[in-house]
Write a structure and sequence with these properties.
The complex is a heterodimer of chains A (87) and B (219). Chain A is mainly beta. Chain A is built from one helix and four strands. A three-stranded antiparallel β-sheet of chain A has the order 2-3-4. In chain A, a hairpin with a 2-residue loop joins strand 3 and strand 4. Chain A is elongated. Chain B has one domain: Metallo-beta-lactamase, Chain A (4-Layer Sandwich), CATH 3.60.15.10. Helices cover 22% and strands 30% of the residues of chain B. A six-stranded mixed β-sheet of chain B has the order 1-2-3-4-5-6, with no helix packed on it. A six-stranded mixed β-sheet of chain B has the order 7-8-9-10-13-14. In chain B, a hairpin with a 4-residue loop joins strand 1 and strand 2. In chain B, 50% of the residues are buried. Classes of the chains: A mainly beta (87), B alpha/beta (219). At the A-B interface, strand 1 and strand 2 of A face strand 1, strand 6, strand 7 and strand 8 of B. The complex binds fe (ii) ion (FE2). Fe (ii) ion binds next to loops of chain B.
Chain lengths: 87, 219
């Protein structure tokens, strides 16, 4: 039987943290999700698809992009800091 | 120099089975991000402002997407982010995500880490120092592999090669409140969970079988 909890429990945690990118001047990332953009480090599989829209970029560089199905519709090279939240 | 980004996380427990929806709030820009649509909007509404809003879906199991239509009807500009092959990818404002892609909402930056296993479309979202794990990892154990599209070998790979390789002081925010507390540091979770102490895949399969054999309903 479906269980519905009638009492909700709310907890609240606050983080005072550094910017999510490590570089102190990571200001040039451009529009984000709400403008339709994602970011990623270029992988070897991306090179051909990026070449089709005339973007020439090395593996490992950070791009801001939009997809159209499996293909890139738009991509620009941005500062590495826009993708570097792993470190 | 760019100022620090303060953000807060509120967790809302309810829905089908002690599910948790999270609301991340960027205190500088007001931008907000939800994780999963598993509790009624009325629980969350008092905390939603008029700023841009996006929702990250951890996987397509119905309890995690149950209230998505309700959220969209009240917030038509909501951007939905989830796995590219998820069953919910038909929504107009659906943004397909792949492993390693970075999502920026205001000054909030999240990293998508595809973690198939519990379900084929499972994704964890990392926003330091937090990791939203959906049903891939709970407090005290990993997720189960009971769905038609579950795969224990993929779960092992996801947990051991993608989550346990992250810094162990990251805090785990799971999709259900099944543990002794609702969130936990990864290093504490490893200490208390035999499923996070497997020596290899064979050992993990044995530990999972042992868990299932001794499992009490609702745990
Ligand atoms: Fe699930």
């Amino acid at each position: 039987m479906r269980v519905l909890l009638t009492i909700s429990i709310i907890s609240f945690i606050f983080f005072n943290c550094e910017p999510n990118t490590n570089a102190p001047d990571c200001n040039e990332c451009g529009g984000g999700l709400l403008d339709g953009y994602l970011y990623k480090e270029v992988a070897i599989n991306d090179i051909a698809s990026l070449a089709e829209i005339n973007v020439s970029v090395n593996i490992g560089k950070c791009i801001r992009f939009k997809m159209d199905g499996a293909d890139f519709s738009e991509a620009v090279i941005v500062d590495d800091c826009c993708c570097s939240i792993y470190e | 120099m760019k100022p620090s980004t303060d953000f807060s996380i509120r967790s809302f427990i309810g829905g089908y089975d002690k599910n948790i929806t999270y609301l991340i709030n960027c205190n500088r820009t007001g931008a907000q991000v939800l994780v999963d649509a598993s509790v009624e909007l009325s629980q969350i509404s008092p905390y939603i402002n008029n700023s841009p809003l996006a929702i990250m879906i951890t996987h397509g199991h119905k309890d995690h997407t149950a209230y998505l239509d309700q959220y969209i009807s009240h917030h038509p500009s909501l951007v939905i982010v989830g796995h590219y092959a998820s069953s919910i990818n038909h929504y107009d404002r659906y943004k397909e995500i792949h492993d390693g892609e970075v999502i920026k909402v205001g000054e909030l930056t999240l990293l998508a880490i595809c973690t198939p296993g519990h379900y084929f479309d499972s994704i964890c979202y990392k926003i330091d120092p937090a990791l939203f794990t959906g049903d891939t990892m709970f407090v005290g154990r990993t997720g189960r592999v009971k769905s038609a599209k579950s795969d224990i070998e993929e779960l092992y790979d996801s947990v051991y090669n993608k989550i346990l390789t992250l810094p162990h002081d990251i805090r785990i925010y799971p999709g259900h409140d099944y543990g002794k507390k609702s969130s936990i540091l990864l290093k504490e979770n490893i200490k208390m969970s035999t499923l996070l102490q497997a020596k290899n895949l064979i050992d993990f399969k044995e530990k999972m079988k042992n868990y299932e054999d001794n499992r009490k309903s609702g745990s």
